[in-house]
Amino acid sequence: MLIGIDLGTTNSLVSCFRNGKAEIIPNRLGKELTPSVISVDADGKVYVGEIAKERGMLYPLETARVFKRSMGTNKEYVLGNRQFNAVELSSLLLRSLKEDAEVYLKEKVTEAIISVPAYFNDLQRKATKKAGELAGLKVHRIINEPTAAAIAFGMDKKDDSRYLVFDLGGGTFDVSILELYGSIMEVHAIAGDNYVGGEDFTEVLCKMFLNHNHISSDLLDIITLNEIYKVAETCKCAFSTMDEITMSYTIEEKKYEMHITLDDYENACSSLLDKLRRPIERSLKDAGVTLNDIDQVILVGGATKLPIIRRFVSRLFGNKYSCDIDPDKAVALGVALQCGMKARDKEIQEVILTDVCPYTLGTEIVMHNGMFDETGHYLPIIERNTVIPVSRTQTVYTAHDNQTQVNIKVLQGESRKAYFNLLLGEISVPVPAGPKGKEAIDITYTYDVNALLEVEVYVHSTGIRRKVIIQNEKNQMSDEEATIQLEKLQYLKQNPRDEEVNQLLLLQGERLYQEMPEYRYEIDRALTEFEQVLARQNRTEIELSRKKIGQLFNEIDTNLA
Ligand code: AMP
């Protein structure tokens, strides 16, 4: 069975195409959104999703979140005395989503289509694919999130339209301009920023609260900071239904408050809003269109629920934005439709996707500047926003006399100087010694639909050809390494599924006990009662007690905000 996965920065969703329609698969707790959070205790037990998020409040040092931002890097996370990188953490999350799908669908899941931000570079895409493999999934395709959202939106529309997908998730912002005509969905331009998202808007509120109350964050421990962050997030989301809010938090029995209007908050976020403007302008320019040429703006990502974002969008585009599809689900539904197309489901008309490469790909060359040679120049080979799949060739020449080897650097980026672009890989070919400029070498870059890059080098005089699929050395696994890495992850104990709801409640209770001294007596009694019920192992009794205590804890939790 093939499943679709929206692997988000803050939340992830799993979906499928069944009985002629796209479906979101609920997780083990019956929820559609699984927080992209992993927690590992000292015994190596892994907690994923909601329970990991709850655990993170009490054990922040054993919990990782927002690790999608580190995909394709070597950043290490130490959780429960073990080291993980972003790929491994993502694979634990994917494994859990795969299990949820298997339970729901009552069949084995072996294949997946995973969405990534359009702006993910080559290393980040490969890292995502690798995470899928480590989770035991054959990754059929990596699809861009905005493309998926546009499919979900455009599937049942008859008219040809030009869309701008405005995707503001927890940690990333993507803008894509797409056009649907007939059964072809063509991407015209992609732009974005991997370092701005809903979390930054929460940070602003946190900072406002601390400044307003003259509290220095340096004096607070990480648990208190996390709690303030959580309260800020709740208040931020409350703006969806209220024009003003009061944020409050108690530190050492002293209650701190801040009353704030939506307008104040909007002013404080002005530099973040400016940051959003740039990718929009760039995508319009790259697509060769103006604001007026956009027929529909599709809002995607949890952070687009924020009224200041909607105001910002309507100020730019008028009221052309659509809320037809829940911004949280649009990508996952689109990926599910893509699964249907892949399986050639007769209920669904295939949409041919044409995508573009998000970055310019090139190489480093020496420029002959009349008098002397200048090194470190960037020679673009495939320009950004070129429709993929694509293959382009450039011819370069030997730069020095008696050179016997040519080393080709494969670079990605927009800078004129090679040094400032990202080095994706290198490839060398031998050339016969001779005067500089004599040997001609063709460099061919081929970018496939998954945005995987193949580089071929061809020496004219000798006929020697070298071909590589560009892999980041540090990310590339030999079979042996892959087995070791898999074993390492397998060794970690998963949390038993049926105990998860109960453990979640115990953790919530423990957190509230620490956060809410005024309710300690009730919380303690409820926790003790629940522990006793659990020990008796009577299913019905457990369920009844869970419901009752869950209600109590939720009431106390809402008082927190
Ligand atoms: P995503 O990565 O698409 O799941 O988006 C997560 C981001 O959306 C987080 O920063 C959330 O705080 C934010 N978010 C979710 N719901 C709301 C809401 N109702 N109002 C404002 N922001 C929200």
Give the C-alpha Rg.
Answer: 26 Å
Amount of beta strand: 25-35%
How are the strands ordered across the major sheet?
Answer: 18-17-12-13-14-19-22
Using the coordinates above, name the CATH class of the largest domain.
Alpha Beta
Second rung of CATH, namely the architecture of the largest domain: 2-Layer Sandwich
Based on helices, strands and strand pairing, what is the structural class? alpha+beta
Helical fraction equals: 25-40%
- Mean pLDDT, to the nearest integer, reads 88
User: Which homologous superfamily in CATH is the superfamily of the largest domain?
Assistant: ATPase, nucleotide binding domain
Number of helices: 14
The CATH topology of the largest domain corresponds to Nucleotidyltransferase, domain 5
Distance between the termini: 42 Å
Q: Catalogue the ligands.
A: adenosine monophosphate
Query: Into how many domains do the coordinates divide?
Result: 3
- Number of extended strands: 29
Parts with pLDDT < 50 across at least 5 consecutive residues: 472-476
Shape: globular
Let me know the largest β-sheet: 7 strands, mixed
What does this structure look like?
- The protein is of the alpha+beta class and about 550 residues long.
- It has three domains: about 270 residues, ATPase, nucleotide binding domain (Nucleotidyltransferase, domain 5, 2-Layer Sandwich); about 120 residues, Substrate Binding Domain Of DNAk, Chain A, domain 1; about 60 residues, no CATH class.
- About 35% of the residues lie in helices and about 30% in strands.
- The chain contains 14 helices and 29 strands.
- A seven-stranded mixed beta sheet has the order 18-17-12-13-14-19-22. Strands 1, 2, 3, 4, 10 and 11 form a six-stranded mixed beta sheet that branches. A four-stranded mixed beta sheet has the order 7-5-6-29.
- A hairpin with a 5-residue loop joins strand 27 and strand 28.
- Helix 1 runs parallel beside helix 12.
- The longest helix has 22 residues.
- The two termini are about 40 Å apart.
- About 0% of the residues have low confidence.
- The site of adenosine monophosphate (AMP) has 19 residues, from helix 5 and helix 6.
- The site of adenosine monophosphate has 19 residues, from helix 5 and helix 6.
